[in-house]
Amino acid sequence: MKKAVLCSYHYDPLDRLTGTTPALQSGSLRFHCQSRIATEIQGDTQHSIMQHGDQLLAQQTRQADKHISTLLVTDSQRSVLHTVNDEEQRSIAYSPFGHTMATHTHPLLNFNGERCEPTTGHYLLGNGYRAFNPVLMRFNSPDSWGPFSTSGINTYAYCMNRPVNSGDPSGHISLFIGTQLLRWSRRAQARLVETTGFIYLSQNRHPISRAALNPGITSVAAVTARARMYKELDLGNVVNFKQKKHSENIIAASRRYLSLKESAGQRLITHPNIHEELPNQMHYLVAPRPAHEDVNFLKNIETNSSGLPRQTANTINLPTTNYLRKLNLEAEQHWAKHDAKHEQIRRDHFTSVLP
């Protein structure tokens, strides 16, 4: 039986989908804004998408002398859930992987703000890179980047089989919407600051941390500055610094010790005055030890349950005391640097207000 062609897809030299030609219908042209569809023209019908940043706003449809403007209600993943225009209101429900019983002729965009192909019901993600089938809950073809990429070992999986709060607009990389949620949270915080006229600088909103904005500082800049203050406190954490530094010292000393032992043994073996190879068991005898950061000495320093190095009665000796004193001094300097940045941000943006 001869197979019939239901739809032809057209790509540009960069493998981007530019149009389709369904059987027994006029062809369509697609235009993109960066990586997102902005306009589709089929015959005398034109659909245009209005959006601001990541937020879908409305769709305008022009057909001959008829114009229809449709407001789009979306969720945090840009999925169109409700549409409103002068003629009708329509609600759309999806399964976690995007399957819906609604028709795909209106609106233009559907699950995760992507265009659903009317002929197949599939989503051609990444400007037509590969097709996602919401019924089978997987891609029709493997990821060309996998399995050694963020797509995981299953190169057919969509969002690593975790579609809730995730999306894959490129067809390559699953994106978690936490970044988008953070931006929305920042905007909500900025509106609160703009309404009240002050901001709490502590995470527990203690009254003593309430501050007013300096002249010329907007609510958005204030919320961003507070986030930078929190980040400086995290970066300057003394406990984390000591744990990381002590671990790095052990690794560095181990590598240096092994490197010195290997190079010294090889030099002795190849020395012209020695006519036979030195047994491997004796290589360590000719390897110079690191003067201070001896790997064995570092490993013998006791740590508490959180991995923080500490001095005990069993480790009271001059090398241990000097090492821990140096580590504490480096931690204090590390904290002072980030604390100074924290205070500078506070002075530049805020003025304390007594409760």
Distance between the termini: 83 Å
| Secondary structure: helix percent | 25-40%
Q: Biggest sheet: strands side by side, in what order?
A: 1-2-3-4-5-6-7-8-9
- What Rg do the Cα atoms give? 32 Å
Provide key terms for this protein:
355 residues, alpha+beta, 2 domains, 31% helix, flat, Rhs_assc_core, RHS repeat-associated core domain-containing protein
Walk me through the structure.
Helix 2 (178-196) crosses helix 3, helix 3 runs antiparallel to helix 6 and helix 4 packs across helix 6. The strands form four sheets. This protein has a nine-stranded antiparallel sheet with strand order 1-2-3-4-5-6-7-8-9, with no helix packed on it. The chain contains six helices and 17 strands. The protein is flat. It has helices at 125-128, 178-196, 219-235, 238-269, 295-299, 318-349, and strands at residues 7-11, 17-22, 28-33, 36-42, 45-52, 55-63, 66-74, 80-84, 89-91, 123-124, 130-133, 138-139, 166-167, 175-176, 198-200, 210-213, 350-352. The protein is α+β, with helices and mostly antiparallel strands. It folds into two domains: 33-167, no CATH class; 178-355, no CATH class.
Summarize the structure.
With 355 residues, this protein is of the alpha+beta class.
SSE blueprint and pairings:
Elements lengths: L6 E5 L5 E6 L5 E6 L2 E7 L2 E8 L2 E9 L2 E9 L5 E5 L4 E3 L31 E2 H4 L1 E4 L4 E2 L26 E2 L7 E2 L1 H19 L1 E3 L9 E4 L5 H17 L2 H32 L25 H5 L18 H32 E3 L3
Antiparallel strand pairs: 1-2, 2-3, 3-4, 4-5, 5-6, 6-7, 7-8, 8-9, 10-11, 11-12, 13-14, 15-16, 16-17
Helix pairs in contact: 2-3, 3-6, 4-6
